[in-house]
Predict the 3D structure of the following.
Amino acid sequence: MTTAGAAIPLLPDARAARRGQSRARLLAAVRLLVWTALWGTVLRNIGASVGVWAAGSLGAAATILIGVVIPAWLFVVFPSWVAFRIAGPRGMRRLAALCCWMSPLVRMRDLPSISAWFDVTADRPCPGWDELPADAWTALASAVQADRRRSPARAAEIADALAHLPAGARFSWLARVHGVEALVVSAVARRDWATAARYARVGQGRLILLLALVARGIGGEAVPRRQLWARWLLAPMRRTTFPLVRALARRDAIAAGARPAPPPPPPPSAAHARHIALLEAAARHEEIRADEVVALAAVWQGAIDDAALAALRARALELGIRDGAAQALALREQVLGELALLLARADGEAARAPAHAFRETLVARAREQQLARIKDALGGLDADAVGPALHPLAAWERWLTLRAAWERAEQGGGRAALAALWRSTVRDSLWSYCCALSHQHGGRAAWAVLVMFDWLADRAEYVGDLVAVLANRENARIALASSR
Amino acid sequence: MIAGDFENLVRERVANPFFVLAVAPDAAVAEIERQGQRLLSELAAGLDGARRYPTPFGVRERTPELVRVAIAELRDPVRRLAHEWWARGLAAPAQSAGVRPAEKTTVADRAFGAERLAAAP
């Protein structure tokens, strides 16, 4: 394996590949033929029946509506609407698959992945999963599965990766609308509005827009009533969402009528309570800002200073503890450790503040934890372990763990440490892993490999590794060509 | 990582023995034992009031196991020192610090049953 341009190998059996391609072309031609025959017949029958019925009495607008707009809607939108709004939710898997086959919005190669997505969203086993490629549909199916199995961290990693796909990585409109919708609804169903709002950023569509707005409202933002009702009116599932929208609109109306109360003054020292509030937010997978953690650390400085430790030592003496000083210090260490855990998990860069030993220790510990997490994640990315048994999507999800750990560390601003780690282990391990994945699975892994190579190139740019930038951009280009 | 770590930490803090036993942080050992036994008896008798305990983060469920663990924790002076410190720190300022109660009813809870949405098309 060389470093540059080695990602996409020649297929081991070129004849088999050519056979597969010609079969795909044949199926696509059959599909086109069926479309033409069916829609031609439908159009002819509509035209003939309406023409006989109207007997030349229709105006130009009505003619265009009946002769052009309705048939175009029937042809383009109707099959996918039936598949995703009628057949899929009612468990009619075969009808849903047939409608997708009839929809010009669905690519032929996406059909198996969409069928798998239907299976997963209906909580049914998916027998052909091992043969599927890694793509946006299978990634969304995996995210829905993770979310329902109470593994929202994994689902959030997938959603975040889908939100930052490189140019050219396919993420179809239908996947953005219906695939992401299932994810958002899954979070809403367990009333996790923060997660629902995060998922909604990836998607499009009327229901996602409505639920994102509702999530903002429930999160405390003021939501314009007119906008809320307009979105409700446009969205599907109106009967289900009506009580929610009505309750939110009423709440905002009451809040608007009341005189705004002045904000309560911040408590002088609420370190313990704020600490646990942040821990709770982290446990619920809510977003935590590094600034919040640093502000909490500033509050803690007063609450566990020398005077506080002296009081603890005195109390330890009353309780008959011999090494009271050590116990008091252990409590301070415990707090510092938990703060470091929070800071390592937090998003964004902490605002620069005057250097203080407590803060410096905290930042250093958080960075250590972040680097340790990167090394842990690298353990799962062994190029030698990539074999036929490792599904390309599973391999991609292993990379997501590294991606999440690296990007958190990057936000923390530890560029020098990351550059050292990059050159010592990350670059070669991940690069080899991507190449091995591409060699092993070929086109099935092309989408995943494209995303990973593009990320590799971006990270190489971040640490100033020009050779890796150029080589991985080229690898991403080859993967892109293979994924089309 | 690590959501599990955070969950465990939160659970540990909220199940502070002083909250579970509903005694003051400076309570004497005898008082703690007496209160623990009283709660165990009430739980065994199935009294409704004993099944829940208030914390600065909302009302939580109290079980005999939790009560026994709390009594055992407070028998160890080192563990007691730590619990005392957290209980004292949490008791007063929790509400003003914007801590969200655990069983707070939201607009969504009232209006939008989870099952209804999950079952809808």
Summary: The two ends of chain B are 35 Å apart (CA to CA). Chain B is about 60% helix and 5% strand.
